[in-house]
Specification:
This protein has one domain: TIM Barrel (Alpha-Beta Barrel), CATH 3.20.20. By secondary structure, the chain is an alpha/beta fold. It has an eight-stranded parallel beta sheet with strand order 3-16-15-12-11-8-7-4. The protein has nine helices and 16 strands.
Length: 318
């Protein structure tokens, strides 16, 4: 009995567009989960990802919060690292060169405690090489000028920060918090102020208490929950912003652990995804997710990843 030849599977075109930024595939690392530089280069070729998003940087060095900073949960990870980092100038000098040598496309993430601190961080990045393809503006930071209210919880504060960061001289993506009443309004404010895309979402507020002592397990008290537990939150956020703002460029992030998770965010309306918490346990996870996403698309006869983006809003896949 003659065997049938294996069915040929056409290669899918994974190139994606986020505003003016073109990436060879839609999978990136997530800020805060793969270090400031080329830490993951020991595990895989960083140029195989769409981009590497580095840990958020301020215009100055910052020590972060007191330990303990990480608490595993049944559904992910609670963290209160507190944005520890060397500052933009030190990063440009000491960390970025190895990323460039590794062939990575780099997205720099910045933060600040005031609009002026955001402005300073952005302007320091103006001298970065073209390998830094975008700047992700992490708006989930306490605003010292407004009673420590989170920037991303206010339309006006979001607008002010995005406008102030134009000095970086490259596309800006506003990373937003899901802990708001009207995420669509915040996203619209960021885009209206000059952001080319919104990154949805940052961590969900959470807390863990030690039953034996009655005291918080994190040194800072509470923190942010990431990982599989927030994936449905991220999917809903991407879906709702895409529905309300159909031309918005969106980067989806939250609990992506496999190709199906990535596909779900793309179907909801994201043009790209970020892989974060799973990387702590599996450093090669971003590359695996990228390969699984390709296989998912090929098995369905999808020619380009653009066919997937937002398909849920148009009746699903053909």
């Amino acid at each position: 009995m003659r065997r049938r030849p294996p069915r040929e599977v056409a290669r899918v075109e994974l190139t994606t567009q986020i505003g003016s930024v073109t990436l060879p595939n839609p999978v990136m690392t997530a800020s805060g989960t793969s270090g400031h530089g080329a830490e993951l280069a020991d595990y895989f070729d960083l140029s195989a990802l769409g981009a590497v998003v580095v840990k958020s940087l301020a215009a100055f060095a910052w020590d972060g919060n007191p330990p303990p900073r990480l608490v595993p949960t049944r559904a992910g990870l609670l963290n209160a690292v507190g944005l520890q980092g060397p500052g933009v100038a030190s990063w440009l000098r000491d960390d970025l060169p190895r990323l460039v040598d590794a062939g990575a496309r780099v997205v720099a993430s910045i933060w600040g405690r005031s609009v002026e601190e955001f402005r300073a961080a952005a302007e320091l990045l103006a001298a970065a090489p073209s390998d830094v393809v975008a700047v992700e503006v992490n708006l989930s930071c306490p605003n010292l000028d407004d009673r420590r209210q989170i920037f991303a919880h206010s339309e006006s504060a979001t607008r002010e920060v995005v406008e102030a960061t134009a000095g970086c001289g490259r596309p800006r993506w506003a990373k937003l918090s899901p802990n708001v009443g009207d995420l669509v309004a915040i996203a619209a404010s960021a885009l209206g102020a000059g952001a080319e895309a919104v990154t949805l979402v940052n961590t969900v507020l959470g807390m863990a208490i030690d039953p034996a002592t009655g005291r918080p397990l994190l040194g800072n008290g509470g923190g942010g929950l990431s990982g599989p537990g927030i994936h449905p939150v991220a999917v809903r956020a991407v879906h709702d912003v895409r529905a309300a703002l159909p031309s918005a460029a969106i980067v989806g992030v939250g609990g992506v652990t496999c190709g199906d998770d990535a596909a779900e965010l793309l179907l909801a309306g994201a043009s790209a995804v970020q892989v974060g918490t799973v990387t702590f346990a599996e450093p090669r996870a971003p590359l695996r997710v990228s390969r699984e996403l390709r296989r998912w698309a090929e098995e369905r006869g999808i020619g380009t990843i653009a066919e997937v983006i937002g398909a849920t809003h148009h009746g699903g896949l053909p």
